[in-house]
Design goal:
single chain; 670 residues; alpha+beta; six-stranded mixed beta sheet; three-stranded antiparallel beta sheet
Amino acid sequence: MAPPSESSQAALLPDLPRGPLCSYRARASFSWKELALFWEGEHVLHFKKTIFSALERDPLFARPGGRELSMEKHQELTFLRCKRVFEFGSLLVGQRLQSPLTALALLDCLGAYDWSLAIKVFLHLFVFGSAIYNSGSERHFKYIPKLFSMEIFGCFALTELSHGSDTKAIRTTAHYDPATEEFIIHSPDFEAAKFWVGNMGKTATHAVVFAQLHTPGGQCHGLHPFVMQIRDPKTLLPMPGVMVGNLGKKLGLNGLDSGFAMFHKVRIPRQDLLNRVGDVTPEGTYVTPFKDDRQRLGASLGSLSSGRVCIVAMCVTNLKLAVCIALRFSATRRQFGPAGGEEIPVLEYQLQQWRLLPYLAATYALDHFAKSLFLDLAELLKGLLEGNGGARQAELGHELHALASASKPLASWTAQRGIQECREACGGHGYLAMNRLGDLRNDNDPNCTYEGDNNVLLQQTSNYLLGLLAREGPGGPRCETPLKSVDFLEAYPAILGQRFQVASLQDCLDSSVPLAAYEWLVCYLLRESHEKLSQEKRSGRSDSEARNNSQAYCCRALALAFLERTVVRRFHEHTHAPGVPRPLRAVLRRLSALYGLWSLSQHTALLYRGGYFSGEQAGKMVERAILELCAQLYKNLWGTVLQESHVLERASWWPEFTKKPAVGSLSSKL
């Protein structure tokens, strides 16, 4: 892609205003504008600028001026803002969303403004809408234009009161009646109520409802999605047989109406089964294009992974905001100094750098990983739409499910810890509500539990990895997969024999060092988990008991280390690719090395216990390398840290407007 002209770049990335941070920006060894163009791409930067300009010009998006809204008013305002986003038409949600990364950019920008709004749009458009498009067929496409015009408003109803992470145990049923060619959707009791469903509380008119599909003869074919009308779009009153309500005030995200629903023998047409992976004939025969259950499950896992992949991106946005706030504050907050001299900014202190800069590196690493994983998801869904039911498509579904199941825990926990560290790094001022750190902490918190509890999800990933050991070949497991995330395990026995061999600090400042260590760590934990599981089974315990007793110090650590290794590998390959502009290589590779070493340092005890580290110098060298990389980044990163003022955060979000622009005029002007 040709670089933009100087005039177009100035319009897209104007110079930042003069202020107390200018002295730090002047230290950058590279152009922050060049980094922004490389990292985001000109198209995405234009799109983000368009989004923020649209929000800034409309007084509906003005902040309420310090007063706290009631939950009812907050949810009303969020819905009105959601409606306005769709009124912008093609400006925001039209042809531009044909690019997967542009769709992710919309979520990023709306989330940076307000997560209640972003999640409301996301659930309606990307979750409900994508479920219909990707899991349905041509007979369901009638809903798509109504979705964009907001004639209907959607939600995604999978979780139940008594079951969330264990989707196989969902208890809502869908019995087929061939006499009327209808499915009967039923909640057997209150524990089977759909629960924690965003948009369902007050505004959703339709839902994608997951239920156990039963055909005549009593055969159950497992969990399948159905599109159901739950309210009358003209009155918002519940449909017959549907009890639906709002859950009430939450710890955060109170602009989003989270709800519950129960169904009492609600009849829906046969055609309302989303039939991409399985269908029922008018006579009641179950049919599927997939040859075996593994392939059908692989296709189904893709749609279930979508929400988790997007949550990773949401966590990254929260980390971006928190890190920017804390670093800017630290660069201007002055405390202590040499005797008789001026006080110096707290970011000059090594301890403050050690607290914050690894989270900056984590933000870049996880941001790249979130984008690459989103593109992998797009590939899976594309194959599903094209009717690809082959073995590779099934393997891709299982691999992506394993990655998504561990990436949500890693991203949400990293953001959780990072936001708290940023809050504390700002001292007492970090406790003020106006700086958003409290809101970020509260709004990020549900990322740890919805779409699956983190600790339970990690079991999906460890089960996948343990299953690979069954594919034994001459030299180890046979582990060739579409995304190549586990291909290194083919050298499993040889990797276990490797040891930390770095001789100098300079050699340790490269991300290839933590990458090699992570490959050993994953192999070691895979062996430990397999041996623990086998030991439990030899003791006479059942398979479920054995797995339960192997989680705390084995399987859980295995899943996290595997995902951390995947993030390190993808960031290492990205920063060492030939397409990286020469002036950006040094700083991006330092970020890659810092993230890898900092993450690895949290496993020091395991590295010593397993014998990869020996002697005190190995651990000390990693610590020295982390501090050295923090110092190098501190000297050279200011243009990067502070470059996102129009995308991530502003000192004052929205000016007061006295004249409201005419709805619809924005699109033509821009």
